[in-house]
Amino acid sequence: MLKLIGATLIIAASTYGGLVVARSYHERPKQLRYLQQGLQMLETEIAYSSRPLHIAMDLIGKRIPGIIGQLFQEMGNNLRTLDGESTFECWQRAIQTTIPKTSLKAQDQQILLQYGHTLGMTDKNDQIKHIQLTVQQLVAEEQLARDDQKIYEKLSKNLGVLLGLLIVILMY
């Protein structure tokens, strides 16, 4: 009886591990799409609104769901509270705070940091061009993430179950 309970726990734990890995493959394309939407909203705010950047970031953060919305809200909060810090430093802190909680990879973070160097430093037209370039890069990353999702999501789920079964077979 004890062996059966142990085997069940091992299979359940490895299956859960496979599901966690599969979830990250499932979430990354969504989060990249939300980043694109947020940056497009920022582009609209810059082009047609005269709101301060921290207010625009707060509004965008409220419209974008999940952790990506929190990224924009964190940026707005940093701009308000970190007196004397540059816009890039506020953006960098927001990214360092929120990105570890996401399914985004290092290259996604690099794209966002690269964009942050120009945030608030140039005129309106250059800001819009930089946002469009960043969105294009995120679209390319989203396509790669979708390709990875097709390949690795199902594989991760199955591998979790099979690894648990292998462990149980080897132990007994």
Task: Annotate the secondary structure layout.
Elements: H1 2-48, H2 53-63, H3 66-81, H4 87-98, H5 106-116, H6 124-171
Helix pairs in contact: 1-2, 1-3, 1-6, 2-3, 3-4, 4-5, 5-6
Q: Stretches where pLDDT falls below 50 for ≥5 residues?
A: none
Mean pLDDT: 92
- Structural class based on helices, strands and sheet pairing: mainly alpha
Count of individual beta strands: 0
What are the secondary-structure elements, in order, as H or E?
A: HHHHHH
Which geometry do the CA atoms define?
elongated
Count of alpha/pi helices: 6
Q: Helix share of residues? A: over 70%
Q: What distance separates the N and C termini? A: 13 Å
Task: Give Rg in angstroms.
Answer: 21 Å
Sheet with the most strands? none
Describe this structure in words.
It comes from Tepidibacillus fermentans. InterPro entries: Spore_III_AB. The protein has 172 residues and is mainly α. It has a domain at 33-151. It has six helices and no strands. The longest helix has 48 residues, at 124-171. The mean pLDDT is 92.
List keywords for this structure.
172 residues
In short:
With 172 residues, the protein is mostly helical. It has helices spanning 2-48, 53-63, 66-81, 87-98, 106-116, 124-171.
